[in-house]
Amino acid sequence: MSLTRRDVEGIAHLARLQVTEQELPVYVDSLSKILSFVEQLSAADTAAVEPMAHPLEGEVQRLRPDEVAESDRHEKYQANAPQVKAALYVVPRVIE
Predict the structure, then answer these.
(1) Can you give the pTM of this predicted structure?
(2) Can you tell me the distance from the alpha carbon of 55 to that of 44, in angstroms, rounded to the nearest whole number?
(3) Lesser CB count within 10 Å: N end or C end of the chain?
(4) Does the pLDDT at position 86 exceed 80?
(5) Percent of the chain, pLDDT > 90?
(6) Cα dihedral angle (15, 16, 21, 26), rounded to 10 degrees?
(7) Sequence-ordered list of residues with C-beta below 8 angstroms from that of 6, at least 6 positions apart, any chain
(8) What does the pLDDT look like over 41-69, one tens digit per residue?
(9) Rounded CA gap, 20 and 9, in Å?
(10) Residue ranges of the domains in the chain?
């Protein structure tokens, strides 16, 4: 699949990215190559492939023990706040 300049401009607008005129051809080319590669991957026959729970068969994931590593220090952090009420940070109203 090949993208046009208009397609990339639309994508950049939706993503809130500022793309200059000099960068636009590079993005058109790069994104078109990525979409072409994804099309090639979609063409692979995966009907006989079973889903895996783990990429390495017979391996298990090492888990760390579920232990508390830090204590609750909210009072220490809130000591620096300009205003605290009921253990919550008080901030100026933004929406009226």
Answers:
(1) 0.51
(2) 19
(3) C
(4) yes
(5) 56
(6) -30
(7) none
(8) 988 998 998 888 777 777 777 888 888 88
(9) 10
(10) 5-42
**Which one has a higher pLDDT value, 84 or 54?**
84
Separation between Cα atoms, residue 30 and residue 37, nearest integer Å: 11
The CATH class, in words, for 5-42 is mainly alpha
What is the pLDDT, as a whole number, of residue 35?
93
Q: Give the burial class of 51: count Cβ atoms within 10 A of its Cβ; 0-12 exposed, 13-18 middle, 19 or more buried.
A: exposed
Question: Tokens at residue 8, please?
Answer: 């990339």
Percent of the chain with pLDDT over 70: 100
Tokens representing 80?
């620096």
Tokens in use for 66? 């579920």
Separation CA 34–CA 4 (nearest Å): 14
Residue 8 CB neighbour total at 10 angstroms: 22
